[in-house]
Amino acid sequence: NHGHRFVNRIRVVLAIARGYTVSELALIFMLDGDTIRRYIRLYKESGINGLLEIHYNGRPSYLTDEQKEKLKEHLCQTIYLEVKSIVEYVNAVFKVKYSIPGMTKLLHELNFVYKKPNIHPSEADAEVQRKWVLN
After folding, report:
1. Strand, coil or helix: what is 121?
2. Phi, psi (rounded to 5 degrees) for 64
C-alpha cells in the first residue's frame, strides 16, 4: 500500500513545481499543510529517493495484534469523523491511551485513510437551477 503514498508524494512535488500553493495542494490531496511541506523537504534533501523512502519514526503499537484486529472490525462497522473519537474508543474498550498523532499512525498502519467528506445539498433549489440554465 506504500505505492499509492509514493505516487502522491511525487505528485505533490510536481504540482509545487507547476506553481500550486501548499494550501491548494492540501485541499486537492486531502493532506495537511505540514505533510505537504514534509514531502517538499524530503525532495529537496534527498531528491526522488527521499520521496520513495518509508520514514517511520514511531514506537511499536500499544495494541496487541488481536486488539488491532478487533479495532479493524469495529472501524469497518462504525464511521468516525474525528481521530479523537477513535482514541476515546480505544481507551474505553482496550484501556490503552494513544495521542491523536499516534492513533493516526496506527490507522495508517491498519490501511485506514481519512477522506474529507464532500458536502452536497440535500435538495436542489429549482428556482436557482432554472436561473442558472437560462444564463
Report:
1. coil
2. -75, 165
Residue 86 CB coordination number (10 Å): 21
Q: How many CB atoms are closer than 10 A to CB 51?
A: 19
Decide if 41 contacts 32 (C-beta within 8 A). no
Per-residue model confidence as pLDDT tens digits over 23-70: 998 888 888 888 888 888 888 887 777 666 655 444 556 899 999 999
- Distance separating alpha carbons of residues 117 and 121, to the nearest angstrom: 13
Residue 90 makes CB contacts below 8 A (sequence gap 6+) with: 63, 71, 96, 98, 103
Q: Extract the C-alpha cell encoding 86.
A: 477513535
Do 43 and 5 meet the contact criterion of CB atoms below 8 Å apart?
no
Rounded percentage of the chain residues whose pLDDT exceeds 70: 79
Which of 2, 6, 28, 5 minimizes the C-alpha distance to 15?
Answer: 28
